[in-house]
Amino acid sequence: MRPVGVLVFPGSNCEHDVVRALGDLGAPAELVWHAETDLSGYDGLVLPGGFAHGDYLRPGALARFSPVMGAVSEAAAQGRPILGICNGFQILTEAGLLPGALRQNTGLTFISRPVALRVASSQSVLTRTTARGTRLVIPINHFSGAYTCDDATYAQLVEGGQVVLTYEDNPNGSRGDIAGIANAAGNVVGLMPHPERAMSSLLGSADGRGLLQSFVESTVLAA
C-alpha cells in the first residue's frame, strides 16, 4: 500500500492530526510540502485544515496557486481519492476542483464545537461505506464555512448525489445545510467538519473513523 499524501501549506495546522488519524486506521501517510510538483507516489491526497498562506486574500485563494495544485488536479483527473477538510475544502473550491465557494459564517462569528450531521449520499470516497441518513457528530472549527453556489449548481449537486453531508441544525448559514460535497465522479470530496478530530469516544466522538476508513479503503481500490 502506497502512502496517502497530506499536503502542507504555509499556515496549515491540522496536518499532524490527519497523519495520526490515518495511521490509526493502518494507512501510511506522509507530509508533502506545497512546493512539490510530483504526487505520483501517493494513492490518495488530503488537504488539511488551517490558514493556508494566512488566508490573506480569502481562505484558499492563494493556496490554489501553490505549485502542488497542478499535481492535485492531475490526480483528481486520474480518479485518485482527494479529501479537503475545512481550509482544504476552501482550497478545492478556489482551485475549481469542487463547485461553489465558502463564505463567512452568518453572524460573522468563529464557530468551534461539535455538530450533528447526516450522510446525504454514499456516492463518494468519503461516504461510500456509510448508509444514507446516518447521523454523525463531528466538530467544526471555522469562520468562513458557509457553502454557497448558484441555483443551477445547487440543483446539479442535489440531483447528482454530490451533497454528501448536511448539518442537522445549520450552524453557519450554509446553503441547503451543506456540510460537504463531492465532484461528479465522487473521488474529490470537501467538508467543513473535522473527521480527524472525531476518532475516539474518549474525546467526544468516534464518528470520524468510518468516514476516514472509507477514504483509506478508496485509496486502495484506486491504486
Q: Secondary structure elements and their pairing?
A:
Blueprint lengths: L3 E5 L6 H10 L4 E5 L10 E4 L20 H10 L4 E4 L1 H8 L6 E3 L7 E9 L15 E8 L3 E3 L2 H9 L3 E5 L10 E5 L5 E4 L16 H15 L1
Parallel strand pairs: 1-2, 1-3, 3-4, 4-11
Antiparallel strand pairs: 5-8, 6-7, 6-9, 9-10, 10-11
Keywords:
single chain, 223 residues, alpha/beta, Rossmann fold, nine-stranded mixed beta sheet, two-stranded antiparallel sheet, 5 helices, 23% helix, globular
Descriptive overview:
The chain has a nine-stranded mixed beta sheet, with helices on both faces. The chain contains five helices and eleven strands, in the order βαββαβαββββαβββα. The radius of gyration is 15 Å and the shape is globular. About 25% of the residues lie in helices and about 25% in strands. The mean pLDDT is about 95. The chain has one domain (about 5-220): Rossmann fold (3-Layer(aba) Sandwich). It starts with a strand and ends with a helix. The chain is an alpha/beta fold.
